[in-house]
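[recover] target loaded
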């Protein structure tokens, strides 16, 4: 079926209910060929792509960043600011993934506001959700060369899976992706995208919904550093006395090169 509503919007501003308390979660990654060093940061805030210090009461939620190559997954080492990671690695030309994982966490709201708790811990909660967040960064090393690695699902709860390596996509061309939740396509999911420097607010430059196969064509009309984000909600069926729903969010950060 044709991908639904792939739309480029210059000044579209999307405000979702869960954003009243939530931060965006993304990963920045780069590689220095001369020193053979991967550096990466957990982005957790509202100012993509600039990382911010992670609050002490939330630091435990984040697992160490991981580098995924054809040889497998390697955990990166935290160094410096609490969002900063690095790894010594001799990477060949091509594309890699840096993965970020947010431990599923209950958040409940009562008259006093939001707290890391479920309904049993906050009996007067008006709403409870289990936040499940995943982040994925595509790391291009030494120029643009297509890599099948980035087009494969990696098993995150909710993930955006490129159907082509964005290193081969030029501004104005189609960048097709698929959204999966627990390995299955998510139909009619809302996906937004923006690029570095577009806006200091919550404005997005792209908005669309996935088709019945979880597919959507992102149209990156400008070269630069991009972030795509998708959300998916399902009822919390394990025990409705514990929480109301699961809110899963996934991001994909990637670069679009200058037109050749």
């Amino acid at each position: 079926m044709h991908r639904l509503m792939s739309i480029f919007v210059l000044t579209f501003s999307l405000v979702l209910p869960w954003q009243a308390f939530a931060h965006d979660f993304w990963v920045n990654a780069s590689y220095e060929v001369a020193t053979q060093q991967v550096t990466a940061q957990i982005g957790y805030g509202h100012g993509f792509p600039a990382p911010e210090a992670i609050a002490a009461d939330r630091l435990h939620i984040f697992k160490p960043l991981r580098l995924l190559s054809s040889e497998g997954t390697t955990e990166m080492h935290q160094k410096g600011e609490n969002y900063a990671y690095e790894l010594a690695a001799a990477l060949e030309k091509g594309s890699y993934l840096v993965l970020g994982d947010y431990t599923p966490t209950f958040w409940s709201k009562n008259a006093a506001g939001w707290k890391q708790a479920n309904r049993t811990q906050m009996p007067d909660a008006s709403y409870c959700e289990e936040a499940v967040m995943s982040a994925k960064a595509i790391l291009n090393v030494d120029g643009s060369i297509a890599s099948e690695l980035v087009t494969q699902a990696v098993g995150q709860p909710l993930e955006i899976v490129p159907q082509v390596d964005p290193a081969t996509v030029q501004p104005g061309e189609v960048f097709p992706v698929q959204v999966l939740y627990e390995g299955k396509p998510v139909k009619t999911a809302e996906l937004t995208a923006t690029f570095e420097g577009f806006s200091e607010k919550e404005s997005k430059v792209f908005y669309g919904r996935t088709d019945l196969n979880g597919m959507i064509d992102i149209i990156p009309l400008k070269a630069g550093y991009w972030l795509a984000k998708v959300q998916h909600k399902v009822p919390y069926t394990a025990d409705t006395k514990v929480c109301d729903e699961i809110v899963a969010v996934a991001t994909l950060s990637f670069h679009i090169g200058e037109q050749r």
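[recover] notes: The first strand starts at residue 7 and ends at 13.
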